[in-house]
Amino acid sequence: MNPSFKGGIHINEHKDTAGCAIERMPAPSVVKISLAQHSGAPLRATVKAGDHVNIGQPIAESDASIWCPVHASVSGTVKAVERIADAGRAAPVEAVVIENDFLDTLDPSLTPPPSVDELTGEQIVERVRAAGIVGMGGAVFPSYAKIKNSTGKAKTLLVNAAECEPYITADHRLMLERPEEFLGGIDLLMRAMGVDNTIIAIEDNKKDAAALLREHMGERKNVEVRLLKTKYPQGEKSQIIYALTRREPTHGVRLADIGFVIFNAGTCAAIYRACTRGEALTERIVTVSGDCIGTPKNVLARIGTPIKEVIEFCGGLRETPKKVINGGPMMGAAQWNMEGVITKATSALLFLSDREEHRNALPPTCIRCGRCVAHCPMHLMPNYLAKLAQAKKYAECEDYHIGDCMECGTCSYVCPGHMEIIQYIRVAKGALRARR
Amino acid sequence: MNDKNTTVSPAIPDMLTVAHAPHVRHKDSTTRIMLDVVIALIPTLAWGTCVFGLRAFLVCLVCCVSCVGFEALAQWLMHRPITVLDLSALVTGLLLGLNLPSTAPWWMAVVGSAFAIVVVKQIFGGLGHNVFNPALAARVFLCLAWPAQMTFYTAPYDRLAFSAVDAVASATPLASLKHAAFPEASLVDMLLGRCGGTIGEVSALLLLVGGIYLLIRKVITWHIPVSFIGTVAVLTFIFPQTGGRLDFMLYEILAGGLMIGAFFMATDYVTSPVTSRGRLLFGFGCGALVVFIRYFGGYPEGVSFAILIMNSLVWYIERVTRPRVFGEVKKKHGK
């Protein structure tokens, strides 16, 4: 049995697109590039309507201490800077709307280095920043900052290719089709951070990817591929570290301080492309799936591609979806409407009916079955947290370690009484934040 | 997907449902869990009908119908949503019926159901809020109010007429054990359920089958049944009341309501702890109390009292068995 952690649950995997090779989607005629594509405050546009932009040209900036640029993903003319709905955010965000001239003119600002092997750590960090690379598993923390924070502290690089969310196969396909990019990115990260060894963590439903990577390992030493049990949320940082090392990261301690740094598989490949070819992060692999989409696919789409274009590319809708999810079904955010776009965080676009929500007419009730307690990967008591939050006893939530909840959704998933446990926990967390 | 070009793609909706993740759920529901409990009790009910006659089945039926009826009535009176479709009242009714002797008067079944649903469950807030197991609390209430009727057990295969006027009382195995004598029924009779007792408690084997079904369906975990029965086994083996400690232990385990209590009553979600360690502690407490009451109490049977006493301690048990949070450093004087 491959290693795992205590708690969690095996969820119907729905990896229907595991056999779907990545298809490059034609660039859309209009892209809308969100200026809030990494954690922290949104950027400020540096272009205005009428400006001409090239692919890879930075179009926004910020005064924040940690930020990285976003780039035009097509060449063409800026039509407007307008607000668009963004899944998972409370308010619309600014976006730069660019009309494609279909010339695909590359911006001269990002160029490949004369020799990749001679890049210093600092040069790698600068290239990663300039390319606008963020954690592509969904956390969207600027990668250059993570490299800087971990340099000198981290001893082990963990590459998170667990892809534990149902449906998503973007990283799986990446490893199968572009192993050299993926492994090359790991080499660059190890060099930049001075890390001694690397563990690539893959859930055991992707044995083919693990075997392929082992074949492509070549001269590399200290890079190890490890299979983990397929169980949600295997890809959470604490759970992955425990599965691999049997060590429990103490709450509140930064991973770098205990010698670890984690990068997502897609991020590694993006870093490789930025450092070898000078590419900015202007496209990403997106798994398009769900029971309402005509043909599930893995697509390589430009950042800012409207969802409607993705639907058209994937054979239209099979039936009218109740929800469109940006990300996985367990932690992804529901789109407000069909006007949304692909961002750097869009690992998947899922078009879902509500069949797998198994809704019934009964009012949500905790019957104290204890399943949330048994399955919580953080070993919390989610039923207590939900009830305390319901009663607005937020201070008592802290006695039950509400801060340790990473909102993986396992408790809500297993609840037979259909309590919206995570929702209550988020309300309590918000109230506690507001008090500080 | 051959028909892809022939069918018209549905219109792209203007509005979508915005809700918090997760967007998928496990298919189990409260209703399904309660249905599983009912399924697990069907062999027991069938056996009860077989040994005690059709009247036993009708007693259970009256309890089920009255419990569901009282639940709907109480919720309607209290302006709560009517949730009889979650089947929890049906489970309460079935368990109450199985906990009555086959001679129980009809009115007693109805009064017991009213007490279980209205007093023990709905007044405390309905499903998920009651402190005590409704069926057990009702059984104890009936035992205290009408002790003669509640302990009027007939011999096995003494199938009664519906009026129960022809009933002849017979001693239960536990009554014999109370007087430090092995009962007439052999251990095999006890296992199969060829002995006196309430409708649902007699066949240890079929209760075990139902319990294993619940374990396989993951409706219950092993903690409470194992620690409950295990504690009774260990204590009765170490301190036998008569000669032949192994026989005595087996009689104590197979007799009375231990099996139905350990698998179906003590495992009631609402009135048992949610933590694994808490469930072990809960089962241990139940087992120890059962032996204590059987040895030293005035009643021959102590399962109902033991579980109800432990019900009242659930809150405290959960408090002291809260799991250590992942990555939590133990404080010296933790809460």
Number of domains of chain B: 1
Chain pair with largest interface: A-B, 79 and 54 residues
CATH H-tier superfamily of the domain at 116-277 in chain A: NADH-ubiquinone oxidoreductase 51kDa subunit
User: Approximately how much beta-strand content do the residues of chain B carry?
Assistant: under 5%
CATH class of the domain at 116-277 in chain A: Alpha Beta
Give helix and strand order of chain B, one letter per element, not per position: HHHHHHHHHHHHHHH
CATH topology tier name of the domain at 116-277 in chain A: Rossmann fold
Radius of gyration of chain A from CA coordinates: 21 Å
Question: What's the multimeric state?
Answer: heterodimer
User: In terms of per-residue confidence, which ranges of chain A show pLDDT below 50 for 5 or more consecutive residues?
Assistant: none
Structural class of chain B: mainly alpha
Give an overview in words:
The complex is a heterodimer of chains A (436) and B (335). Chain A is α/β, with parallel strands linked by helices. Chain A has helices spanning 121-130, 143-150, 170-177, 179-193, 207-215, 237-245, 265-277, 307-313, 371-375, 382-390, 394-399, 410-414, 421-435, and strands at 22-24, 30-34, 44-45, 52-53, 60-61, 76-84, 93-100, 156-161, 197-203, 223-228, 260-264, 283-289, 297-302, 323-326, 333-334, 348-352. Chain A has 13 helices and 16 strands. In chain A, α1 (121-130) runs antiparallel to α2, α3 (170-177) runs parallel beside α5 (207-215) and α10 (382-390) packs across α13 (421-435). Chain B has 15 helices and no strands. Chain B has helices at residues 30-52, 54-77, 88-98, 106-122, 134-145, 147-150, 173-178, 187-192, 204-216, 223-238, 245-254, 258-265, 276-296, 303-311, 314-320. Chains A and B meet through β14, β15, α12 and α13 of A and α1 of B.
